[in-house]
């Protein structure tokens, strides 16, 4: 059960990453402050979701679907490291 939640968190993080990419494409001088603030908030949300997803993946280690747990853990750790690096490098 926790492995499905971990995968859902990683998929939601992926969808929000696509939203950040789309917002970054439409950024111009008129709305750069609003969009950059929105991108920062979305990046922080992705960071929180990936932490929760990684915790859920670790809790589901005892489940029988080991491959699913492994993929969920890797995806959440990938988003966690990516957005941790982005937030730290931009602050």
From TrEMBL:
Keywords for the protein's UniProt record, in alphabetical order: Membrane, Transmembrane, Transmembrane helix
Transmembrane segments: 7-27, 33-55, 67-88
Protein origin, superkingdom: Bacteria
Protein known as: Uncharacterized protein
Organism: Polaribacter atrinae
């Amino acid at each position: 059960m926790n492995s499905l939640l971990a995968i859902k968190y990683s998929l939601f993080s992926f969808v929000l990453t696509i939203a950040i990419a789309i917002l970054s494409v439409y950024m111009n001088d008129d709305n750069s402050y609003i969009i950059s603030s929105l991108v920062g908030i979305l990046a922080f949300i992705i960071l929180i979701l990936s932490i929760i997803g990684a915790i859920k993946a670790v809790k589901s280690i005892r489940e029988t679907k080991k491959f699913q747990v492994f993929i969920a853990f890797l995806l959440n750790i990938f988003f966690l490291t990516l957005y941790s690096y982005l937030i730290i490098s931009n602050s």
